[in-house]
Amino acid sequence: MKKKFLMWIALIVLVATPQVAQAMHIMEGFLPLKWAIVWSVLTLPFLVIGLKKVGKGLREGQDHKMMLGLVGGFVFVLSALKIPSVTGSCSHPTGVGLGAILFGPMTMTVIGTIVLLFQALLLAHGGITTLGANAFSMAVVGPFVSFGIYKLLSKGGKNKGFTVFLAASLGDLATYIVTSIQLSLAFPDTTGGIIVSFTKFLSVFAVTQLPLAIVEGIVTVMVFNLIQEYRKEGVIKLEESI
Amino acid sequence: MLLIDRYAYTNRLKDCSPQVKILLSCGGIAIPRLINNYYFDLFTIVFMAVLVLGIAKIPVRSYFKMLILPLSFLLLSIMTIVVSVNGYNYLYYFQVRNICIGITTESLYKGARLFITVLSSLTSVYFLILTTPIMDIIRALKKLKVPNLLIELMVLIYRSIFIFIEEANNIYLAQTMKFGYENKRIALRSTALLIRNLFTRVFIKHNEMNISLECKLYDGEFKLGD
Amino acid sequence: MLKVNNLYYKYEDGTEALNNINLDTSKGKVIGIIGANGSGKSTLFLNIMGILKPNKGSITYNDIPLKYNKAYLREYKKQVNMVFQNPDQQLFYSNIFDDIAFSLRNMGVSEDIIREKVVNALMQVDALDLVDKPIHFLSYGQKKRIAIAGVLVMESSILLLDEPTSGLDPYMTKQMKEIINKISSSKTIIISSHDMDLIYDICDYIYILSKGSIIDEGEKQKVFSEDKLLNEASLTKPWLVRIHEKFNTILFKNEEEFLSYEERKIL
């Protein structure tokens, strides 16, 4: 009876403790070697294609290398900002949604991977061994989902603010789901296997990830609208497709 | 912010060969996995701590703060793994309707093992990032034949990070002067404004830097010396 | 030797930025361009650099007019170059050596010569001791010096300095003055600044820019005695000139002369 009580306390404390809600970077060393390699291998082709596309764009058009550098710095700082979250604690945005809408998913794959590397090296956030896995969820799946939803709903002529919100928050949710899959594959439950493990991870992280997705969605819409204002005034020049 | 970068450039091991440091770090990650003996993991943890605290002379407080950083993720994930449903040999459990939720000896053991292995990899990487400046790491990657475009982008992004941190900081301070973070709603709007302004500066800086690049006879490549 | 001949430049939206500018660098070793904010100083510099193309008039270097093709401008920039006011916009690497070596590597210079030139450039700006630090560890004044070194290394004959002392504390300003004096022995310098005392101290010949036109030019003693024109350009007089005018002392050429002056008693 006493043990049961203690366990409840432990669980509540753990979940309710104000933590800075990060996007779900898998921390250093967390994935078994086998899985670290698998996800790196899966991410590699996307990175290679992204790099080729970026390289091609640089050779053809005006040289944008410096621009990409600046965008990378911008995304890094973006992901280091603190936004007040619904649950009371702070969150760090992922920058995935905004980045994908503004710069395109392929570019974000390259830039996102480099930003993840620097997050691991400069902020000890995420990891180098888990770079492949994190890149897959945050630099491949996230941007593609965000961009895909943005384009899809834009064609339908839906309200722009709603489109951007959905694109950003669903991108975050997709990242969180993929990360949960990655974790459950690496740590299947002893009795229930992968499915149970997936459910466990999904529910535990939902507490931080769902509010984060919503808040980031809101902030992304706000930023997007502000950018559009500046475009109308001619302060920023962006491609017409955005 | 970016205390780790500062340590990397000011610690006692900064001039030590980057290749050696990278090898040590990789060894600390790979060897315990290959040997699969948890005492070796413990040895790695202690060994790396000695290198970082004793030889590189990183302040103990900072080191422990860094270890605590990923703690919430670690504990949460391990708890998730440790707590199982409808298993056998429960140590502690409680019942909800006909589902048993609790901790088995096996899962507890699994959790403890995971904790140790994560810690050994974590301390190995921390050793690397606390003692090795980023530029050394990038140069090592270049030697490992990482594509040139990627290397160039890394160099540029690394520099940009510091430009934008300063800008973001300035904007943030200016906003706080005007009570920009008084409550959640205002803070949200201020943050959005900060992001938008930062984004605008991406373009402004791009224009300015392009002019400088022209003056310096930029030919499309950001070369690195050896 | 650089000349600006009857140059006119309009911005994209049609506003006139520069009207009939005539400038001759053979008039002095250190040439000053002074004017209020928005008078066109930076635009003039960008025209001289060949980054902006004038609508009318020309820039001639060694009596040859500027050609606006890539090959010509490439060679031109080896002879005429510029240091911008904001150091951050011209520092691209976090490693100081790589940043200063950037232009030389772009020119295909061999690595051992690069090494020599980079060290030389760092010595000229008194920053050799900084070489191991990453750029983001430097103070504003230190960054400004590294930015200058990054251009000095190209060993151009003419160097444009856009507000080299803006944002610097008094000590750094003094240091910068010394650096400019040192550099001026081997090249012609065109400097734009709001610091009238600095301009008075180091310049041989001065142009006053006001609303896009040159309203006066000449040696410092002459230029700074023209009250009406200085007013029109929204400028003030250097302190040494004001002291001279108020107390009828001799007009000192620079601060050192003023400070070392001792009144001689007339017997």
Task: Please provide a written account of the structure.
The complex is a heterotrimer of chains A (242), B (226) and C (267). Chain A is mainly α. Chain A has a single domain, classed as Arp2/3 complex 21 kDa subunit ARPC3 (Orthogonal Bundle), CATH 1.10.1760. Chain A has helices at 2-16, 33-60, 65-80, 96-103, 105-123, 131-155, 160-186, 193-232; strands spanning 83-84, 90-91. In chain A, strand 1 and strand 2 form a beta hairpin. Chain A starts with a helix and ends in a 10-residue tail after the last helix. Chain B has two domains: 3-137, no CATH class; 147-215, no CATH class. Chain B is extended, with a radius of gyration of 24 Å. Chain C is of the alpha/beta class. Chain C has one domain (2-236): P-loop containing nucleotide triphosphate hydrolases (Rossmann fold), CATH 3.40.50.300. Helices cover 38% and strands 22% of the residues of chain C. Chain C has eleven helices and ten strands. Chain C is globular and about 55 Å long. The mean pLDDT of chain C is 91. Classes of the chains: A mainly alpha (242), B mainly alpha (226), C alpha/beta (267). Chains in contact: A-B, B-C. At the A-B interface, helix 1, helix 2, helix 3, strand 1 and helix 5 of A face helix 2, helix 5, strand 1, strand 2 and strand 3 of B.
